[in-house]
Design brief:
heterotrimer, A alpha/beta (146), B alpha/beta (143), C mainly alpha (314), A: 146 residues, alpha/beta, Beta Polymerase, domain 2, 5-stranded mixed sheet, two-stranded parallel sheet, 21% helix, C: 314 residues, mainly alpha, globular
Chain lengths: 146, 143, 314
């Protein structure tokens, strides 16, 4: 299978995405909103059988982004799924841990540092901040930079 | 100079503590203790418990979590003891000085615990094993 | 001089505590220097083991709150006193062989177990999980090597025609027969485990992340353990020399031969130490129970056959 086949497979879920970008031959970026994140992740992990690598969170001034990195090993292609979390007061997105247990710790880390709430996470606890760190202070947010 | 300090200079047993380092300095310390650099001729020996140690080799910037543990380890080190801060991070937090997790340079953490702590600084990022040996020997000779 | 005063002199000064300690410190320096030369480096100066002990006596003694204080403090004293007794016994037999008592082999074997027991007691009283694991492993190790070692010593007793006094055993050299040689090998490995040297230093440096059994000891109590280990380094090879290699003389050529035999045993211990990695406790137990046990049982059988039919080289 080559790149075109992969794009064709990805268009099966294009109703949930707001965009598909091909940055280079080995890199595809999918954009979607936070409400569709669970469905797209499930599609990528189960139907496409891509391998989940890690997730990254970014504080772009007006909204948060969570980027899920998948690797499609048959082609050596990296699929980045960018999820936009628009609500800055109560950022929330559905947790993908129920079907992808490997995501449990990275979601705890993102919650510790950014305050993004992961709904239905089985074991949401403090991961990397100190035990006596004050609740509600999220150090990686832009307003915490002072 | 009392006999306790004299015998401590001749036979300093070291214990290695990492309070939030990137592990570069830890690798250099482990290199330093291999047969190639032969620190046993100074009487230096690596021990596995702080209660047996005379010198603590501290690496790392001093994170908030590790500061609590470092104070406990310092309390458990039998006095008289010397603390060596290896690397730029414990000497003055290095490049991490605006980090959210940094409790402070390690000498501030130790002086909170014991104002009379004997502290020696070996800067570098990371210091070469030759620099570590030179720092330790120089510090011991002025004790 | 009155009897008790003379006993105190023998126990504490010569040839007991002070004399054996001086030779022990020199022996432990030899161990460190030879290990250094094998690794192509320089190694510590001559006074290093002495300065280690002086430094330890100058540090404060920290006792954990939850530790069993009496046993914590008494354990190194018990171990040290058994080593003082053993070394005095062995040296007195060498110096004055006419003052024997029958059965001092059994007393010596008994005293040789005491340091390991003291180690187990002291680490169990430490109230620390690392020390508890170290104590458990030391117990398993002792159960492993004691049986083959005692069988090896029984071989010597059979070969010398049933003598139970160390002074009379010292006249024979059982190592030049097949069963005696096998027994010597087994007891050499058992001594390696008793001294706590690689490949069997499972108890002490086992958690190099914790120092195992001696983890909670500091200051003068740790110095007592180190003194005990230095004396073990003299007493155990000396026991092997008396049992297998024909004793230690006191005058002239015999004295030099004795020193040479002691140095040979020490060098064998050092070479085994420097060429082997540390083994796991289950590997050590299998090694002692299966291989060493088998070899020493074969040696006992050969020795019995040899003494029954009068074949001296068997």
């Amino acid at each position: 299978m080559n790149n075109h086949e992969l794009i064709r497979k990805l268009s099966a879920i294009s109703d949930k995405l707001t965009g598909i970008e091909q940055k280079s031959e080995k890199r595809i970026t999918l954009l979607c909103e936070s409400a569709n994140s669970f469905a797209v992740n499930k599609f990528l992990f189960e139907q496409l059988a891509a391998r989940f690598c890690i997730a990254t969170a970014i504080d772009s001034d007006k909204f948060f982004e969570i980027i899920y990195h998948y690797s499609y090993d048959q082609l050596g292609c990296v699929i980045n799924l960018k999820v936009f979390v628009r609500d800055r007061q109560k950022p929330a997105v559905e947790s993908i841990t129920p079907f992808l247990p490997a995501a449990e710790w990275i979601e705890r880390e993102i919650h510790d540092l950014y305050g993004i709430d992961f709904l239905n996470h089985p074991r949401m606890r403090r991961l990397i901040l100190a035990d006596d760190w004050p609740q509600g202070v999220y150090p990686m947010r832009k307003e915490a930079k002072q | 100079m009392s006999w306790k300090i004299w015998s401590l200079k001749k036979s300093p047993w070291v214990f290695h503590v990492n309070v939030g380092a990137c592990n570069n300095c830890d690798i250099e310390i482990v290199n330093c203790l291999t047969p190639k650099f032969d620190v046993e001729r100074f009487g230096i020996k690596l021990v596995g418990s702080p209660r047996h140690a005379d010198a603590l080799l501290v690496t790392g910037v001093g994170t908030r979590q590790a500061a609590v543990r470092l104070r406990e380890v310092y309390r458990q080190t039998a006095k008289p003891c010397v603390v060596f801060l290896i690397g730029a991070c414990p000497c003055g937090t290095g490049i991490f000085h605006t980090g959210y997790h940094v409790e402070g340079p390690v000498d501030k953490i130790l002086k909170d615990e014991d104002p009379n702590a004997i502290i020696a600084y070996v800067p570098g990022c990371p210091p070469k094993p030759e620099a570590i040996i030179s720092g330790v020997v120089k510090a011991l000779s002025v004790l | 001089m009155s009897e008790p005063l003379q006993n105190v002199f023998w126990l504490l000064l010569f040839p007991g505590l002070v004399f054996t300690l001086i030779i022990g410190l020199a022996a432990s320096w030899i161990v460190r220097k030879v290990s250094a030369l094998v690794q192509w480096r320089v190694g510590p100066p001559l006074y290093q083991p002495l300065v280690d002990i002086i430094k330890l006596t100058g540090k404060e003694i920290l006792i954990p709150i939850q530790a069993q204080q009496t046993i914590f403090i008494m354990a190194p004293i018990v171990g040290l006193s058994s080593m003082i007794l053993l070394s005095t016994l062995l040296w007195r037999i060498i110096i004055a062989p006419s003052e024997i008592f029958i059965g001092d082999v059994i007393v010596a074997i008994y005293l040789m177990i005491m340091p390991s027991l003291a180690l187990i007691l002291g680490s169990s009283a430490s109230a620390s999980p690392h020390a508890a694991i170290g104590a458990g492993r030391e117990m398993k190790l002792v159960m492993g090597y004691e049986l083959p070692m005692v069988l090896a010593f029984i071989v010597v007793i059979i070969k010398t025609g049933g003598q139970l006094g160390l002074a009379s055993i010292a006249g024979y050299t059982p190592v030049f027969s097949i069963s005696g040689f096998l027994a010597f090998l087994v007891s050499l490995l058992a001594i390696q485990a008793k001294l706590g040297f690689v490949p069997f230093d499972i108890a002490e440096a086992e958690t190099e992340l914790g120092s195992g059994v001696l983890m909670e000891y500091s200051g003068a109590l740790l110095a007592l353990w180190k003194i005990m280990q230095a004396m073990m380094l003299v007493a155990f090879p000396l026991f092997l020399v008396i049992m297998f290699l024909g004793g230690f003389g006191t005058t002239g050529a015999q004295l030099w031969a004795g020193i040479g035999k002691f140095v040979i045993v020490l060098v064998l211990v050092i070479l085994i130490k420097n060429t082997n990695p540390r083994v796991r406790i289950d590997q050590a137990m299998k090694f002692f129970w299966v291989y060493c046990g088998l070899i020493s049982a074969i040696a006992v059988a050969l020795a019995i056959i040899g003494s029954l039919y009068g074949i001296s080289w068997l």
